[in-house]
Each structure stands twice: as structure tokens, then as C-alpha cells.
Write a structure and sequence with these properties.
Blueprint lengths: L2 E6 L14 H18 L3 E4 L11 H11 L4 E8 L5 H14 L4 E6 L23 H16 L33 E4 L3 H9 L3 E4 L2 E2 L7 H19 L7 E9 L3 H7 L8 E5 L2 E5 L2 E4 L1 H9 L2 H5 L2 E5 L6 H15 L7
Parallel strand pairs: 1-2, 1-12, 2-3, 3-4, 4-5, 5-6, 6-8, 8-11, 8-12
Antiparallel strand pairs: 7-10, 9-10
Helix pairs in contact: 1-2, 1-10, 2-3, 3-4, 5-6
Pfam families: Bac_luciferase
Keywords: Monooxygenase, Oxidoreductase
GO molecular function: monooxygenase activity; oxidoreductase activity, acting on paired donors, with incorporation or reduction of molecular oxygen
């Protein structure tokens, strides 16, 4: 059995070929797709976060709205760039969204990806302390977030408060019990996956890795997952961790599918450069359901993960994205033992 959800980057453009022409379109359609995904029996609705771009950015209003409109599906991010975040304010927003959804929030965070602007986090008021860099700052923001999500008091109460305080030091409110265990780190390397395990976060791995050893992407990612689980055991954590991978999967069952993705099948991994380093990008799976079942059965990382996030082409509209989800759930998942 495997949890299956979607991951939306939330693009919009005024192109006549786009079903999402504005930020309002994307936000409303994201909510509608999450509702449709829950009705289809999918397990998760996840949203990417990018700043200074015509894509989804501030995640918590959207997550809260999705939580209010659904009752079962997991809701999450993949991922929030921690360079931009005030961790205390973030803990308040996350706690509220998690309580609205009755504990269904799965919060994916990371150091962040290449930006639309130079050092965009500086415009948000965040500057790495002297002797550190932006990656250090992201990890420090993460450390603070994880600490306050534990729910322990740390702030000295006023001797003359506006309202009566409980005894002792005060914590961030609202506090949502258990949210600390539902934080995921988007890791781009094997070493970062090991660090993620030692921090007690779940592992979120994408369709790219910012390293390349020459082996196929799915094997490199499977090694990343194995090293994460080994480090988790070494760290002595008592709960079972979760692991997600993302894939672009498009079963071709109609003329419209063929027009959109019929040319995507048969390709392989791509190797390129990201942030000045060599990176390996996973393939797109497109083809008939029978062929995709055979190909995905050989994907070692998908087999090793408990959660699969399907990257969806949100600009093609809610109906088409729901169709892709339904086809994966009905035509692929049973044959692969995921359902």
C-alpha cells in the first residue's frame, strides 16, 4: 500500500492556453482540485512555494482553506523555503492550519531552490549572520521552528498582562499537538538526507538530486532513502519515519492525453547543472497504463517510499488534473500493489 497525492507548483499566466490566468484562479482551483482528489480516493494535496514568481507563495491561507473544505486528505507543502521564514510566526500559522484540518498538515520545508531574484530573502528582512551563509540561516530557522513546535514554554510572561496567563513560561499559540512529527525536509543529496534523519524529520525527495554518481536517477534516490533510514535508526528515534518521492506520471488513455503527453514517453534521465553543481533529473513517465506499470515496477525509489506525489500540470485545469489522478489510481495503482 502506498499513499498517493498530487504536488502542484501553482503556475499562472495570461496565455490563452492556460486555464489559470491569475493568482485568484490558481488559489481557487487548488482548493477545488484538493476536494476532487479527496473524492477520488487520493491521499494528499501538496503545494510548492516560490517567491517573486507567478506561482503559489504564501501557503498557510491556502492550506487552511483546503483543510476547511476537506475531511480526510493530507494537506502539505513541497517545499517552503526556510530562508524566507520567521520561524515563530510560521509556527503560529502552521499550528492554526493544522488545527483547522484536524491534524492533517504535512509540512515540507527545505533550504530552498534557485530564486527568481538575487538573495530574495533579504527583501523579507532575513540576512545571514556574519560568518554564515544562506544555507546556514535556513537550518537555523528550521532549528527554531522544530524547537517551538515541541510546545514547551520559553517566553517570560509580563507581570502586568492584558489577560491572565497560565503559570510558567509561555509558548507559541495556537499549539497543535503532534505537528512536530509531521515536518518533512526536502533533501537534494544523500548527505542532506542523513542530516534530515538526525533532526527527526521525514524525508521528501523530488524529481531531481543536486548530485550525480552516474547511476540512474531512481537508483541514486533509492540509495538516498536507504541512507536516510540507516541514519534514522542510528539516531535512536522511536517512531517510524515517512518518505515521499515525486514523479511526473501521465497515463495515456485518451486522444487528449496523447496530444498533451504522447511525445513524452520513452525518455530517460537528464543531467544538468543546478547552482553551479552537477544534478540528475528524473524521467517523465508517459504511455499506456500497461507500459507504465512495467516501467514503474522497476523504479527502486518509488518502491522504497511510502508516499508518491504526482506533479500535476495545474495550468491544464482542475478537470484534466483530476483525470490524471483518477487514471493513476484506477489504472496503475492496483497493478503495482499500491491499492
Amino acid at each position: 500500500m502506498k499513499k498517493i497525492g498530487f504536488l502542484s507548483f501553482g503556475h499562472w499566466s495570461d496565455s490563452p492556453h492556460s486555464q489559470a490566468r491569475s493568482a485568484a484562479d490558481v488559489l481557487h482551483q487548488s482548493i477545488d482540485l484538493a476536494v476532487a482528489a479527496e473524492e477520488l480516493g487520493a491521499d494528499g494535496a501538496y503545494f510548492r512555494v516560490h517567491h517573486f514568481a507567478q506561482q503559489l507563495a504564501s501557503p498557510f491561507p491556502l492550506l487552511a482553506a483546503v483543510g476547511a473544505r476537506t475531511s480526510r486528505i493530507e494537506i502539505g507543502t513541497g517545499v517552503i523555503d526556510m530562508r524566507y521564514e520567521n520561524p515563530l510566526y510560521m509556527a503560529e500559522d502552521a499550528g492554526a492550519a493544522d488545527l483547522i484540518s484536524d491534524g492533517r498538515l504535512q509540512l515540507g520545508i527545505s533550504r530552498g531552490s534557485p530564486e527568481q531574484v538575487v538573495d530574495g530573502y533579504r527583501y523579507f528582512g532575513h540576512v545571514p549572520p556574519e560568518g554564515t551563509d544562506h544555507a546556514d540561516m535556513a537550518r537555523e530557522h528550521t532549528r527554531v521552528l522544530l524547537e517551538v513546535l515541541e510546545g514547551k514554554g520559553f517566553a517570560e510572561p509580563s507581570p502586568r498582562p492584558m489577560f491572565p496567563n497560565p503559570p510558567g513560561l509561555l509558548r507559541i499559540e495556537p499549539h497543535s499537538e503532534g505537528l512536530r512529527e509531521r515536518i518533512w525536509w526536502g533533501a537534494g543529496t544523500r548527505q542532506t538526507a542523513e542530516w534530515t534523519a538526525y533532526q527527526g524529520m521525514n524525508l521528501m525527495s523530488s524529481t531531481l538530486l543536486s548530485e550525480d554518481t552516474g547511476v540512474p536517477f531512481h537508483q541514486l534516490q533509492a540509495e538516498q532513502i536507504e541512507r536516510f533510514r540507516t541514519a534514522w535508526a542510528d539516531a535512536g528515534h522511536t517512531r517510524e519515519p515517512r518518505v515521499s518521492v515525486s514523479r511526473s506520471i501521465f497515463p495515456v488513455v485518451s486522444d487528449l492525453d496523447r496530444a498533451y503527453f504522447g511525445h513524452e514517453g520513452g525518455g530517460g534521465d537528464q543531467v544538468g547543472y543546478l547552482d553551479g553543481g552537477k544534478a540528475r533529473f528524473g524521467k517523465t513517465y508517459a504511455g499506456t497504463p500497461d507500459r507504465l506499470v512495467e516501467e514503474l515496477a522497476r523504479d527502486e525509489a518509488v518502491a522504497a517510499a511510502d508516499t508518491l506525489l504526482l506533479t500535476i500540470p495545474n495550468q491544464l485545469g482542475v478537470d484534466y488534473c483530476a483525470h490524471v489522478l483518477e487514471t493513476v489510481l484506477s489504472d496503475l495503482a492496483p497493478g503495482l500493489g499500491w491499492r
